[in-house]
Amino acid sequence: MKQQTDTEKVTCLIIGSGPAGYTAAIYASRANLHPVLYEGMQTGGQLTTTNEVENFPGYPNGVSGTEMMEDIRKQALKFGADIREGNVTSVVLTDSVKKVVVDGKKEIEAQAVIIATGASARYLGLESERKFRGMGVSACAVCDGFFYRKQTVAVVGGGDTAVGDALYLAGIANKVYLIVRKNYLRASKVLQERVKNTPNIEILFEHVTKEVLGDDSGVTGLLLEKQGKESVQIDVTGLFLAIGHQPNTAIFKDFISLDENGYIVTEGKGSQTNVKGVFACGDVQDPIYRQAITAAASGCKAALDTERYLQSL
User: Fold this and answer.
1) Cβ–Cβ < 8 Å for 112, 13
2) Does the annotation count 300 as an active-site position?
3) Which residue range(s) make up the domain with 235?
4) Pick the catalytic residue: 144, 165, 283, 286?
5) Alpha carbon distance 70, 76 (integer Å)
6) d(CA 216, CA 117)
7) Which residues are CB-contacts of 100 (< 8 A; sequence separation ≥ 6)?
C-alpha cells in the first residue's frame, strides 16, 4: 500500500452499507465510537434492488427496499454517524495495523474495523434479465416469493438452494418450474426426493435460460434452450435465480480468514475475525440466512463487540 501524508485517523471504520453496516453505525454512534462508514459501490446494499419488503418488523404495510435502507441510514445519521460515499479499494489489516485506501487515494487508519460488504447474487448475465430485475426477476425467493401467490414461476439452479427455493415457492405459487442445466440435481438426496414428489413442481433437466420475456408489467415468460438445440417457451410471471452468491471479500483475502466459498469466518457466535479489532457482519459472513433482519442483528453484534474491544485497549 502506497504511503500517504494525509492519513486520517478514526476510532471505528465501517466498510459497506446495507442493513448490517447501517445498523452497526447506529449502535456504534450511540456508544460514542464516532463511526465513519463508507457506503461502497451500491449504497444501501442488495436490498435496494427489492421493490417491496413485507417481512421486516416495523413496516406493517410493507416498504420498498430503497426506502427502508434510507430510513435506517437516516437513523444512523441522527445519532452522529459519519456516512460517506466511496469504495474501499485496498486494505492492510493486522493485529497492530488497520489501514484502508478509499477510491485508490485516501488513506484511513482505524482502531477498529467492521466489514459489512455483503454478498452479490450470481445472475445469468442476460441483458433481459437485468431489464426485469425487480420486475419479476429476483435472487431471493424468501424475500419476494409472497408476491407470486397462485402464479406460475421458475427457479434456475440444481443445488440445495435452488431445490429449497422451489419447495418454498411450491407452497405459494400454482406451479413452479425448476430449470436445471445438467441432467441431474446436485441437491441432497432428501431434498431431491421432496422436490420430485411435489406435484406442482416440474423439473426441466438440460435446459438453460436464453431470454427473459416481458412487457411494461414485468416478466411474462422465458425462452429456454434444451441441449443446445430445441427452443422452448414457458409462461411465468417470476424468475428466481438460485445459482449462488459471491461474498464481497476479495480485498480482504490476504488478511482475513475465509471459508472455502469466500465467506469471512468469525469466532463462535460473535463477529470477531482472526484479526484482533476487525469484525464482520451481514451477508459477508452469513452463507445461510441472508435476510435483512439477520444482517441488521449481526450489525448490532459487531458494534457491541467493537465497543468491548475498544474498551479493552
Assistant:
1) yes
2) no
3) 123-241
4) 144
5) 10
6) 33
7) 13, 15, 88, 90, 91, 92, 107, 108, 110, 113
Q: Is position 2 within any domain?
A: no
The predicted model scores a pTM of 0.77
Active site residue 143: yes
Q: How far apart are CA 202 and CA 121, in angstroms?
A: 24
* CATH number of the domain residue 214 falls in: 3.50.50.60
Cβ atoms 68, 47 nearer than 8 A: yes
- Grid-cell match 500517504, residue found: 4
Q: Is residue 174 part of a domain?
A: yes
The residue whose grid cell reads 434479465 is 129
Q: Is pLDDT larger for residue 229 or for residue 258?
A: 258
Give the 3-state secondary structure of residue 26. helix
The neighbour count for residue 292, using CB atoms within 10 Å, is 26
pLDDT of 238 higher than 90: yes
The DSSP H or E segment spanning 235 is strand 230-235
Cell of 54: 413485507
Q: Specify the DSSP element, H or E, that contains 23.
A: helix 18-30
* C-beta separation of 154 from 222 below 8 A: yes
Last residue of a domain, one of 241, 276, 300: 241
pLDDT tens per residue, range 79-117:
999 999 999 999 999 999 999 999 999 999 999 999 999
Average pLDDT over residues 39-59: 82
Residue 183 pLDDT > 90: yes
Measure the CA angle with vertex 273, ends 271 and 277; round to 5°: 90
Active site residue 140: yes
Please tell me which residue in 6, 103, 140, 259 is annotated as part of the active site: 140
Q: Rounded to an integer, what distance in angstroms lies between the CA atom of residue 53 and that of residue 293?
A: 11
Residue 248 has pLDDT above 60, yes or no: yes
The one catalytic residue in 6, 95, 103, 143 is 143
Residue 51: pLDDT band with limits 50, 70, 90: low
